[in-house]
Design brief:
There is one protein chain. By secondary structure, the chain is mainly alpha-helical. The chain has one domain. The chain is 61% helix and 1% strand. The protein is built from 13 helices and 2 strands; from the N terminus they run ββααααααααααααα. The protein has a two-stranded antiparallel ribbon with strand order 1-2. Strand 1 and strand 2 form a beta hairpin. Helix 3 packs parallel to helix 6 and helix 4 packs across helix 5. The protein is globular.
Length: 274
């Protein structure tokens, strides 16, 4: 049945999601503590408190919206799409393993496009700028998104699921992969140059994504990928290195270098102050 609970590796969906999330967060936090790429400008405790609080608020908002619109959950949307026969993959009859591979790639492309739009549409940028206002970059930065942006992202993914029709398993695996890869590429992690070069031929690495958080507009309007690096190369938005170097570059937004970006209240109010 399309509405049967999703299990992965013998675990329920919520347990699997939470397990991978916690494992990825603590792994990349530990690695960046042992091999930091850049010195910190702000207190880790204050930043982590704010970034985690924003995740908690966003999660609460989405859960409240799910009570009104359950289809905002990707698994529920995937189940309905399967029942109705909507979406590309519900028309193809591909083997599950091949569907998962293709669905992950196409869903990643959809997130790349969403990210591009969030930089190009002024109203959406108001909310996405909260993420870019962070003046340090580490694994916790992957949690720092305004609750309204998270709610809008859930609605966007709903449309993508109806268009593509991935299985519920593919949808869950993609979201788990997206969250883990976001924590990886935001990590303040120093990697050997050859390893970075090898990985970024397929994946978005911390050095590649750090360019996207540069103070220079021409740099933060590049490298939109979250998981796969191919989309930026394909659509010519790829930039290999920051002009000022990884040690010399300034992270954040030019107009908010002196602002209290690590404060929760400031971060939540930023969209209405622009």
């Amino acid at each position: 049945m399309a509405n049967d609970p999703v299990t992965l590796f013998g675990l329920s969906e919520p347990v699997f999601r939470m397990g991978v999330f916690l494992a990825a967060f603590f792994l990349f936090s530990a690695l960046e503590a042992m091999a930091p790429r850049r010195p910190r400008l702000q207190s880790r405790l204050k930043r982590w408190t704010t970034n985690t609080a924003m995740l908690v608020i966003a999660t609460g908002l989405v859960r409240a919206l799910l009570l009104i619109a359950p289809l905002l959950a990707m698994t529920a949307a995937a189940g309905l799409a399967a029942e109705l026969g909507w979406g590309l993959f519900n028309l193809t009859g591909l083997p599950l393993w091949l569907e998962i591979c293709l669905a992950v790639m196409l869903l990643d492309l959809a997130i790349w496009l969403q990210h591009l739009i969030s930089h190009k549409v002024p109203f959406i940028w108001r909310f996405h700028s909260v993420h870019h206002a962070d003046r340090d970059l580490d694994a916790s930065s992957a949690l720092r998104f305004h609750p309204i942006e998270i709610a809008g992202s859930a609605a966007y993914k709903l449309g993508v699921v109806f268009l593509l029709g991935p299985s519920a398993v593919a949808a869950v695996l993609f979201e788990v992969l997206l969250n883990a890869s976001a924590m990886f590429n935001h990590a303040n992690l120093a990697m050997p140059r050859e390893l970075d070069r090898l990985l970024r031929s397929v994946l978005v690495t911390p050095d590649m994504h750090r360019v996207h958080h540069s103070i220079h507009r021409r740099e933060h309007d590049s490298n939109y990928g979250f998981c796969l690096s191919v989309w930026d190369r394909l659509f010519r938005t790829y930039r290999a290195q920051p002009e000022d170097g990884h040690q010399g570059m300034t992270i954040g937004l030019a107009e908010h270098q002196a602002s209290k970006t690590q404060a929760l209240s400031w971060s939540l109010k930023l969209p209405i102050q622009q």
